[in-house]
Amino acid sequence: MWNVLLSFSGLVALIQLLFLPFFPESPPYLLLQKEDKAGCLKAMKQLWGEGNYHTEFDDLMKEKAITKGTKIMNVLEVLRERSVYPQLCTMLLLLLSLQLCGLKIFQTANLQESIIPYVSLGVSISELISIIFCSSIIDRFGRRMLLCGGYLLMALILVLLETSLLLSDQFLWLRYCSVVLIFLFIIAYGIGP
C-alpha cells in the first residue's frame, strides 16, 4: 500500500496549489526585494486584518536601510564563504541520508539490484542541482510562482508515476520511465516547495 501513501503527498500538494493564489506575498519580500511599499502594507492588512502596522513597517524599513549596503551573494559566493561550511555539511548529510528512502520504489519498479545504487546516486545529484538552481532563480521569479509551478508539476508527475508503476509489469520500458519521473519529481520539489 506504499503507492497509496505516495499518492497522498500528491493530494496534499494539490490542496496547497489550490489555496496558494489566495494568500498574499510575504510583506518583507514585497518591501525588501520588490521595493513595493503599498503592496507591503496591503499584504500586512490581508494577513493580519485591519489595524495600524506602522511599527512593523518601520522595522522593515530599518532592516532595508541596514541591508542596503550589504551585497546579496549568489550561490557560488556562498559556497566560497567558510563561515557557512558547517551548515552546508549538515545539509549535505541530510540530503544523502534521504536517499535510503527511495530504495523501496526502485525495488518495486523491478530494477536490477546492481542498478539501484546508481539510480540512488542520480537522485542525490538531482536534489543538489535543483537546490542550486532554485536558489539562483528565486529572487527573479519569487516564491509564489515557484511554489505554484512546483506543486503543479509534482501533482502531474505523481499521476504519471502511479500510472507507470501500475503498468510496469506489462511494459518493461515503463520501469525506466518511473525512474525518470522520480528524478523529475525531486527536481520539481527542489525548485518549488
TrEMBL record:
Biological processes annotated in GO: D-glucose import; dehydroascorbic acid transport
Signal peptide (from-to): 1-17
Bilayer disposition of the protein: Multi-pass membrane protein
Subcellular location: Membrane
GO CC terms in record: plasma membrane
Sequence ranges assigned to domain Major facilitator superfamily (MFS) profile in this UniProt record: 1-193
Pfam name, any one: Sugar_tr
Keyword Transmembrane among record annotations: yes
The keyword Kinase is annotated on this UniProt entry: no
Membrane-traversing stretches: 115-138, 144-161, 173-192
MF term (GO), any: D-glucose transmembrane transporter activity
Superkingdom in the source lineage: Eukaryota
Keywords associated with the record: Membrane, Signal, Transmembrane, Transmembrane helix
Protein name per Swiss-Prot or TrEMBL: GTR9 protein
Organism: Daphoenositta chrysoptera
Lineage, opening ranks: Eukaryota, Metazoa, Chordata, Craniata, Vertebrata
Protein encoded by which gene: Slc2a9_0
